[in-house]
Structure formats: structure tokens, C-alpha cells
Amino acid sequence: MRALSLIPLVIATPALAQDFPVTLDHAFGSTTIPARPERVVSVGVHEQDFLYALGIAPVGVHDWWGEKPYATWSWAEDERAALGAEPAVLMGFEINVEWVAAQDPDLIVASYYGDLTQGEYDLLSQIAPVITAPPGYPQWGAPWQAELRLIGRATGTAARAEEVITDLEGRIAAARAAYPTLAGKTGSTGYYYDGVVMTYNSADTAQRFLQDFGIVIPAEYDELAVERGNADFSMEQLSHIDLDLFIFPDEPAEGGPLAQVPTYAALGLATEGRAVNLGGGDLAAALSFQTPLAIDWLVDVLPPMMAAAVDGDPATAVVLPQ
Predict the structure, then answer these.
(1) Rounded to whole angstroms, how far apart are CA atoms 301 and 75?
(2) Domain co-membership, 300 together with 194
């Protein structure tokens, strides 16, 4: 795994100077941070990766799922270890305000927790300055660059944020150039459960990853998506997912429950090998996390799988990394 290097922070231009106090706009308004934070708590579900990429060791983080040590997945473990970060971990999806207060934070990061309520925000703001999602984007739908820039400004690491963005965008561009057959193909990602395939609109962070490779999310997904950004299709509506490419993060590689559904098995998606089943695990989690560290890993392993799926030859195997 190639890791984004944790290099010393250098302020390159006056525009990136990190003077405090700083006032930042976010989805819940604006917040003034009086001094460079020293004790950062992340109550969103993936922000620990952003902090590690910026060279910051949080004192508290929020577990999304997986129950990994320090709520850190494999793609971010080297960065966590390099910083010596051993944060307390909030378990369960809901935010425990008392737990947050016990960490004695001087900054609370909630940039990827779309279920945050005004009441929770008000309570957290009584503990420490809070930044929520970057403004101007749908719930759960801000690009990773906007989120990283916001966290970078809040923590005095704006210069490092720009370095990470430049490096990672370059790697994405190189991977896109290496797999030109992906450009212009229709595609999406989604999950099968309880007789429904759930997919997402084009603002979803995993969908943004596909679009970075020129993959086109169907316009109808934006039209049909509900408030939280997902569109659900019953087994009688599966023609809506019969695209050039569809990624199922949790479906077993050798055929899971969905493969046994006759209406799915009859789709060209299934018969022509255009589905990519990730089988859960780290690869599926990285696609969901969509953090700088997760994407840095994904750009090496997922594009060749996608290219194999869209090559028009059903005999081409989509091989999961070992």
C-alpha cells in the first residue's frame, strides 16, 4: 500500500497562513476557533483519516463500523502509528455528548455526520468550537477536497491540505489515464438487502470516485433519490441498474444472495460480467470511507477491476486483490 507521506508542514504562501483566531463557514453556520487546536475530537464517522493525512493525532474518534483498533482501517494504520495516535473511541452511531466532553477537546470535527441535529450541534458547541460539513453540498455529499480544506483551515494545516490534494489528484489523473476505457461508461455502486438494491445520486462520495474516472452516473438516480441521496429499486425494477458497471461492495465475489434472484441473473450486468462484487472487507470499506488515505489505496486496486468489468468480454475475470 502506498501511503501519503507525513512530511513537515510548510506554509507556502501568505494566502495559506494559519493565523488564529479563524472564523470558518460550515453547514450549521460559522465558527470561530480562537487558537490552533491541540486536542481534536472527531465525532463524524471518517474524519480520523483526514486528521491523520494532515499530521494530526486526534484524542477521540467515532467508530463507523468494523470495530477496528482505534477505529482505524488498514489504509490509515501506518499514518496513525507514525503519529503515535491512540485516540479514545466512541462506539455506536449516535453521538454521546458526555463522552465528547470527557475528552476535553478544543476542537470538535463533525464534517461527515449528516444526521447531526441542531440540538446536538448546540450542545457540542458548549464544549468546544465545532465545524460541520462544508457548506453548499448535499447531506453526506461534500467532495473530499472541500472537507480536507475545511479541516485543514480549522487545525492550522491548510498548506498540508493543499499538498495532499495536489498529490492525490495527480494519482487519480494518472490512474484515469491508465484505464481510458472507463470514460463515458455508465456506472454506479450500491447494496442489496431485503429485496431491494439501494444506490445513490451523483453527489454521493463513492459515486464521485467513479466520476473521477469518467464514469457517468445515470441522471435518473438524481431524479429518484430521496432526501438522504439514495434511490431504491425492487427486484422488478432492476433494469435501472443494468449499466456498463455496477459495484456491489458487500456481495461475495463468487455470488451471493443477489445472484440467486432470477430478475438479476437475467440482466446483462450479470450475464456479461459487468458487476464488481467486492465481498465486504477493507476494499468495500475504503469505497465507502472516501477519505484521502482510503482513496490513495483505492486508486491502485479498484480501477483494474472496473476496467475488467467494462471490457465487453464476459470471460475476463474481475480479480479481487489478495
Answers:
(1) 12
(2) yes
